[in-house]
Amino acid sequence: MRSMTPSPALPVDLSAARRVAVAAAEAAGELLSAGVGGPLAVTAKGTGADVVTDLDLAAEELIVGVLRDAYPGHRIIAEESGVLEGAPGEEMVWLVDPLDGTNNVAIGMPVYAVGLALCARAEPVLGVVHDPVTGRTWSAVRGRGAVGPDGGPLTLADHPRPGREKNPVLAWTQGHQVKSSDPVAFAMRSALEDQCARMLQLWAPLVAWTMLARGDIDGIVGYLPEIVDLPAGVLLAAEAGAELRRLDGRPYELGIDRPASELGFVAARPELLDRLLETTTKITARLGGGGRNGHVA
Question: Which of 26, 81, 177, 230 gets the highest tally of CB atoms within 10 A of its CB?
Fold first, then answer.
């Protein structure tokens, strides 16, 4: 998947939308950077292990304000606010993750990111990921490639880094609803760990997506991932040259309206993909792997 099929004609200039999204993400990044060192109001969110802080809320409010000023008719789906309706019949939808890695921030670990994606008819056409820790921003437009912090093209090298041909570095991500007793997650994660030099669990999927797009890691496997984390990262990695498939090996078609059973993925350097799929397809066939606890949602 060197580059996704270019987007059809859209009622928005994607180059201009990219500038708006980058500005919003970087402004939110400055807010987060200024606040992570101070006292945080942390509260539990949902029934899983997720939390929310006052920084999540403040960064989201900032981003939503920027998007509303630029595109008042667009719908917005934000991590904390949920669905914010736009003009009747509007097909352009923004997904906003104001602080991907909240659990990290809550314990003082500086691994987090800001993510925005613009979707047309439920499919991502623009993705932006900003790392407030380093001040770097990556972005991608469907069919036009990915761009790094220096404004130049972001493309995977033809070969993995030395020593990683047979010992890749992978990242694992799963949704907050996945329990430690989930048999599919346990089996898949354990089997993959036996095949790699290291398995990262960053608690910040957007950080992992940028690492894959840069070639810092070689692949990511996601089980019941959170939808708000996906579009920006998937688009960035795919446009940089990563390949994606569903856990059962079928083509991966990301859409914000798809069920949880279709969101699990393997994303990797092209030459590594089949090797990872040998593991995930066997476990999916044996235990399931679409929905919670191995049952299709």
Answer: 230
